[in-house]
């Protein structure tokens, strides 16, 4: 690297910007350039300390350490203008962390002896290194990381207890959307920020520009930097409320594939939060797994990433997350994996002959999946005007390849064959309407069973309008259909919570699960079924149980009270199930839903009994409402 380029970089990098020109020239004289391709490890924790300080010119690296229990814990993400290696060679002969290139990264290397000499001879340089970097990292971050035990119930709960107002950067740098691209870049460089919020003529946020925008829209395309910055800004500015918990921001970032969120309070801008902030708050973030999924372009590449998904559940459980929060985050990640698998498979098969929509049902359709179970999916496609045979062949191949791809990603085929690989469950919209109409208007036991399975469907890929047309058709057919709703009520009321006639917890009396009860079938399903029935009664049709209960609460005061208690029951039962499965996975046991009452604390038993009693009382209310049909 030419000396003048090295000097320019050093002038922009604290604490080298504290040095005069003669010192900078001496430092630059021996500096060399180093390139780390994506994935390369710059140095290993407990390996030899690096011989150089690495100043990042372009790219990004991840810094992490391993705890005494072997847990990999994220320390930092560093990008252009940051440096690494100082802590390790200033504190001993061993590297204190592991540094890996997150993308192709180029660095300017400054010899260790040069840096240590500056720390001895230049007070300002030394103060920056020790007080701003070393002391903070050694006294706080590393001690915290080494001491906390994520594997056995410790862990921080910051992601679920902190609100955005506490974490967001308060001083948001803004500029007019009318300034030039060059002026915007200069502001970002001078203020050392990676994003700039742009304002319209009334002073309201109209967009945002980031480092990535400058690279992709300006540098890569050779665009004139004298042009108006408003012409290249990202117009859609996603916002979050200051009172939201941090996990809500994480969900939005994953959903919209963004790295910055404006934080507002009743419309007024309060600050900005980045994916880096959330990664630092949480440690190993679901954002990193989502980003890995997006970076894969083959099924082979998805397989190792998919193995990390269940570890996110265990991490969230350790952090004390509510069951509802866990399921929402896992839905985002699982949906991302499914969409990416479909994109890859579709690219191999070529464009589909007609529009289609991939739907899921069961716990995945209700956004209640945690540890992944089996495949529950189907396919709706447009009614073909011609070339029906070609359409049938295309979607048959898509269904078969997706079944195999998901199996390789750790999601086994459904034992009952409720999958798009089954010709019955990949049909044009016209046929799906015939299915739904038949089940609703001729509610045989088999039809009701199919309704319980398929009416929780949700679109995850393709033309979602097809799914919405089918949902509208379902609502029209089912609303006010007392015969169908009565038959459904009769079917779901047969499944009762496991309490005996004197109010004790009851268990299976024989078989492989003797002495235990199924918390999913006998605990969660009654709540799920009641919520589904309520949604079908009222018309506005949600898929998740909690959303359905929220709709039920809007009817009247009595419904609101019942809804709140059912929501609490659902959260408690789901948390109990998750804790049970987490312990099984930790002990190397295949997770199931069978709870041993003897393994519960006295408090858990007491709450469980009260929960089951309440569910039974709600079932009795439903039974009275549909007495004429439920007793058939």
Provide a count of the helices: 26
Q: Note the beta-strand portion.
A: 15-25%
Shape: globular
CATH topology name of the largest domain, in short, is Beta Polymerase, domain 2
Residue share in helices? 40-55%
Number of domains: 4
Describe the protein's topology.
Layout: H1 3-11, H2 21-29, E1 32-36, E2 41-43, E3 52-58, E4 60-66, E5 72-79, E6 83-84, H3 86-91, E7 98-101, E8 105-111, H4 112-121, H5 123-147, H6 158-161, H7 164-167, E9 174-176, H8 181-191, E10 195-199, E11 205-210, H9 211-219, E12 239-241, H10 246-256, E13 260-265, E14 268-274, H11 275-282, H12 286-294, H13 299-306, H14 309-318, H15 323-349, E15 356-360, H16 362-365, E16 377-381, H17 388-408, E17 426-428, H18 429-441, H19 445-454, E18 458-462, H20 464-478, H21 482-492, E19 517-518, H22 519-538, H23 545-553, H24 557-586, E20 594-595, H25 602-625, H26 627-630
Parallel strand pairs: 9-10, 12-13, 16-17
Antiparallel strand pairs: 1-8, 2-7, 3-6, 3-8, 4-5, 4-7, 10-11, 13-14, 15-16, 15-18, 19-20
Question: Could you walk me through the main structural features you see in this protein, from its secondary elements to its overall organization?
Answer:
With 632 residues, this protein is of the alpha+beta class. It has four domains: 3-148, Jelly Rolls, CATH 2.60.120; 161-282, CBS-domain (Roll), CATH 3.10.580; 296-483, Beta Polymerase, domain 2 (2-Layer Sandwich), CATH 3.30.460; 490-630. Helices cover 51% and strands 15% of the residues. It has 26 helices and 20 strands. The protein has a four-stranded antiparallel sheet with strand order 1-8-3-6. A four-stranded antiparallel sheet has the order 2-7-4-5. The protein has a four-stranded mixed sheet with strand order 17-16-15-18, sandwiched between helices. α17 (388-408) links the parallel β16 and β17 (426-428). α1 packs across α2 (21-29), α4 (112-121) packs across α5 and α18 crosses α19. It starts with a helix and ends with a helix. The model is unreliable at 132-156 (pLDDT under 50).
